[in-house]
Recover the amino acids of this structure.
């Protein structure tokens, strides 16, 4: 039985809606190119302001995914 | 007049909905066994991913509650 | 062409609804007195508890705004 | 010979006098319910302000105490 | 009913006496120009040394104050 | 289906052998009184020195355990 | 003899040249509106990239200045 | 003579044995796909618990490797 | 309209000249393989010493780049 | 005119009285062997507990002192 | 009765074996020149990689030792 | 074959020119009394302001040097 190894990617998901939606958007994008996504962690929440309002939410997350065993 | 003392518990609330809901779920659970809940702080936001989507949100919070005066 | 300078203000927005709403409330208030708001960062999420429930969400944010060129 | 294990509790001691007194108040309260208190660490110093003065000091401390061997 | 917003100012209070006194001096000064002071947090304790003794204590604090509702 | 809630306890495991053994000792002790232990995190590694040698290893860990659903 | 109090402002100075120049630009701007500038600390170094090159350097600094005694 | 550039990958190595073994397992896996591995740093030590015992150790490491010069 | 997602790469640029030059060297190298570079952040400044002098500067930076929309 | 260089020593001052006194005791001891002491910073406040009371305060400080020009 | 003062030295112990051994090697070396060693704390674990394997472990530790009373 | 041990010294180099020069000045001074200097890390960048301009740059660095084998 082998021990699994995981790789961690850092991405920034964005949304005009809020924190939860930005996380979901970032993960949806990451899942287009990475397989075996296993967990995420929120590292930073920022955003742009325009006309005195939140124009977009930018949530930096780390995504852990299991590397395939060869 | 006595000075109050507060105790701090660390818990992880979870939700399939998002950050706010995970906090509320954790506090609802904590309020079943702790009295005089006074404040909370979010320490960490993580979650599990399944099929390239967020399966649950896990929000670590610290909860402060006032100790009874004896 | 001049280099811009930005100033950073730290505020706490509050809400009975959740994190996103507290951020928006804080920024709406800040935009009453500050111009050229450019970005924000969430620094801390806390709140008061009453009767074992979240009474309000308090989100500390830093707001960056561009200083006018004189 | 057994290896000892310690548990760590986090509390907030308060005082109208200052930092040292808030620590002592918190530890006095903790010693009513915990035995074998061994060490403490100050994690945070905050307080309430009223009428432009410090109304109380709130000092968050971690307290380590030795668990009984069974 | 409106949600309150708080602003946070960072100051350094000083004293020849010690930590508590430096905090009180800083807050006394801040209360000359800011209204509705609500809480403080100690961020850093430093000081100058002269002739191998503490010449002054410099305590960096953040002060939260409620913004007036317009 | 209910959302699980987890509680986090902070303990210090000790050993004369090394880091891994101190973690295992701390968890063995915790499992005498806590059920449903789920994960741990190492927060700090320290130790006492005697006669210029490591006398014991002290490893602070956080232990997460699932709260029973009532 | 009074104890001095200092206030801390956080700004972002920018430059197309590099870190040192961005600090100097930010301080030059701050000195237009603040008096008695006393010290600075660099908190963060970031920048925009365009066409695979650094388009500008953004250095966040805290500036301490002595408040006038009244 | 060119200046070298290094890239940093973040992975999680696992083991049923302990910290050192989890690091070695993670690096063995990484060396299957990355060349010129140069250094590593341990960022986090966690693990799963089952039946009140450590089921596996999960050690997050950053691995630095030299990019080839083209 | 789609929300953008950004990926973050961590690299170490080096230089015999200084901090600014090491950043520029690292970004020049990264731009050979990554497109749509958008921002960078300096995370760490280190270096090797030889004969009591700085032999090279090693600046760890995070680089954010926009992922292509598919 | 030469640029000064400072060295930083880390010490732990102790006291049965409180934080301020532990700092002063540590500095008094350091001034027996170091010259040109210039500033200090408090890094950590801990202490031993005996019989449910603070037995001693242990304050870790960094002390900066100017190196002599040769 | 005098209050003790402790000094803290920071060293890097190395080993080809693992974390525990690197700590022990560093302390063995430190004990050749320092007396009254009292405690240590692990601050960082790094290492060199060669041929895709750990060539050495480098563990940064702080060592506290009691200063002699004069 | 022995394992090397390194010691770490913390110093503050200063300059009227900028960050890089302050680092070089500090290392030049350190190399007058320490041998086998191996690496440095920048920990903090601060400075004094006079007349609204940077009067000097103060860069805190840690310097690692190999201890001689006896």
């Amino acid at each position: 039985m082998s021990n699994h190894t995981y790789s961690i990617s850092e991405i920034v998901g964005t949304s005009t809606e809020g924190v939860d939606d930005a996380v979901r958007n970032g993960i949806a994008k990451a899942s287009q190119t990475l397989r075996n996504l296993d967990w995420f962690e929120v590292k930073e929440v920022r955003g742009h302001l325009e006309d005195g309002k939140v124009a977009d939410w930018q949530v930096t997350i780390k995504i852990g995914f299991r590397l395939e065993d060869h």
In short: Residues 19-30 of chain C form the longest helix (12 residues).
